[in-house]
């Protein structure tokens, strides 16, 4: 007995409402890229320590970058029904906002494959933000992680998506 079809337009459910992993076997490989963003806002004291690289736990942004990259490669172990992927590129960048004591995190993930990398980019941003929180919580427990969202994705059957301003 096989589960096929979808319920209500959701691809991770069959006609009976049972969860399934989408069969991507017949899809053609295309170049796919996803860009996600998120923000962590903190106290001016914690922000100054991060910016100057003098946080007691070390290079916060360097460690957060590595954590985000590592997380992008583990999505299939974290989120049910996602496929293990051979990611070809991941970049994590940070924009510091002195006025808001905030750090914007941007993750770009690329692949040539049969399924997209939106979840990988969103996970990379999320884990990078959580790593920043973890490394700074001794100074500021009131940090806020927010606005994690997909900005853009290209490739695949659905084509290009760009988040409206």
From TrEMBL:
Gene coding for it: moaC
Keyword field contains Lyase: yes
CDD domains, per the entry: MoaC_PE (cd01420)
Keyword set, alphabetical order: Lyase, Molybdenum cofactor biosynthesis
One MF annotation (Gene Ontology) recorded for this entry: cyclic pyranopterin monophosphate synthase activity
Described function: Catalyzes the conversion of (8S)-3',8-cyclo-7,8-dihydroguanosine 5'-triphosphate to cyclic pyranopterin monophosphate (cPMP).
SUPFAM superfamilies: Molybdenum cofactor biosynthesis protein C, MoaC
Annotated catalytic residues: 134
EC number: 4.6.1.17
Protein name from the UniProt record: Cyclic pyranopterin monophosphate synthase
Organism: Candidatus Desulfatifera sulfidica
């Amino acid at each position: 007995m096989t589960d096929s079809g979808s319920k209500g337009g959701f691809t991770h459910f069959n006609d009976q409402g049972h969860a399934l992993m989408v069969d991507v076997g017949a899809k053609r490989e295309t170049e796919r890229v996803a860009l996600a963003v998120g923000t962590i806002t903190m106290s001016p004291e914690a922000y100054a320590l991060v910016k100057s690289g003098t946080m007691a736990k070390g290079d916060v942004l360097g460690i957060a970058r590595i954590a985000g990259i590592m997380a992008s490669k583990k999505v299939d172990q974290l989120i049910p029904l996602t496929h293990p992927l051979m990611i070809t590129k991941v970049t994590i960048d940070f924009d510091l906002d002195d006025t808001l004591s905030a750090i914007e995190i941007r993750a770009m993930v690329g692949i040539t494959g049969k399924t997209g990398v939106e979840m990988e980019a969103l996970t990379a941003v999320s884990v990078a933000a959580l790593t920043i929180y973890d490394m700074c919580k001794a100074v500021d427990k009131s940090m806020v992680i927010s606005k994690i969202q997909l900005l853009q994705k290209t490739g695949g059957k659905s084509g290009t998506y760009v988040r409206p301003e």
